[in-house]
Amino acid sequence: MRSNSRPKFHVKKGDMVMVIAGRDRGKVGKVLHVHAKTAKVTVEKINIIKRHTKPTAKNRQGGILEREAPLAISNVLPYCERLQRPSRVRVKILDDGRKVRVYQKAPDEVLDKET
Asked: Where are the chain's structural domains?
């Protein structure tokens, strides 16, 4: 394996995913950030934690803040909104040579946004 290569994951920032394991199992949300080094993802409104913070110059109030915590990337699957269920993804090569990610359960629906 090349030392400078980035790990490849089945989800990207902006994908809709469903949590398949853990406390928030069954919830659907949008990926906010992919943490490549730790193999974790932060999903919108999923895995909410309470953070006790002291008042600072930036946050004068302090108190208890709620925010999303990262969860293991293996605990999420891309969510197909048309089928209303999660599905694994694969890469399909189009006629013009472009590679796009498609759902295995719905191979005609493309995940990547067309530009």
From this structure: 16-85
